[in-house]
Amino acid sequence: MKKLFVDVDCGVDDAQAIMMAFAVPDVQILGISCVQGNTSVENVCKNVLRVLKVCKHLEIPVFRGATKALLGQTVGAGDFHGKDGLGDAPDPDAPGLELVQKEGAVSAMIRIVNENPGEVSLVATAPLTNVALAVKLDPLFPQKLKGLYIMGGNTDSRGNTTICGEYNFAADPEAAYIVLNEFHCPVYIATWEFTCRSKLPWVRSSSHTDYYMMMRFMKQIFKHSMESCYSERIEKELVDGQGFISCDSYAMAAAIDDKYVIETEHKAVTVELAGNCCRGMMVVDHLDILKKTHKAHILKEVDLERFKELMMNALK
């Protein structure tokens, strides 16, 4: 049994990633922590509960986490996932926030990993504020993890939020810096450029859309992002006539399927914290100048057919 703890800012792709994990029989999610990112942390908690209700897994504990970056600076995620993070799709029967646990996210993350030492993989698909706070509260936390799977960062200075920064890292550069420099467990990173190179077929016809979006819930929350992708600005970046991207699902797939990752680049990485253009950019040390003994596995090639199957299973 693969045991996961998931840290999200629950936009549409976070929802898809969670649903993907539920579709794999030997995967167990021990808890889900929420952090501000795609939307406010209150909305993130609501969105996670909506996903759990649809998947009939409301027994999984949900924990409220950081409401702002470590230095308190806010970087907006834009409106790609809608103002509420789930496409602004109304849900009058959504579970209430009283279902969120009283225990804080960081405390719960540390406790659950301590209860399962060496067994839990942490999947982080959001700004890394909660994860950075965990290592600051418990410096031994990283070595108790089986692995850390991150969606974030970039390898080619190609930004999607700032000139050179991917959103999850740019939203809290100090947190990303702490995580990449203080987590010495196996670390796998699905970067922005990698997800752009790993598109899935984009289908517009109603019959195929029903096939891709078998659940009414997914059709509702994905509608806003789908329409945004056909705008002139985002079509060039995301669609390109070839397909769409579910960014967070790539990191989740690496955590739940051992045969999904074909090739990684094993490099030391850090995060730029200064500069007018480069703050929040992930730095890949190709020349070994940093002399770091711990290196991350940057996803380079994956089995897209296997990924497509995982995505399809999540929607059935």
Automatic annotation (TrEMBL):
- One Pfam annotation reads IU_nuc_hydro
Which positions fall inside the Inosine/uridine-preferring nucleoside hydrolase domain?
A: 5-309
Q: What are the GO MF terms of this UniProt record?
A: hydrolase activity, hydrolyzing N-glycosyl compounds
Stated name of the protein: Probable uridine nucleosidase 1
- The organism encoding this protein is Cyprinus carpio (Common carp)
| Classification lineage | Eukaryota, Metazoa, Chordata, Craniata, Vertebrata
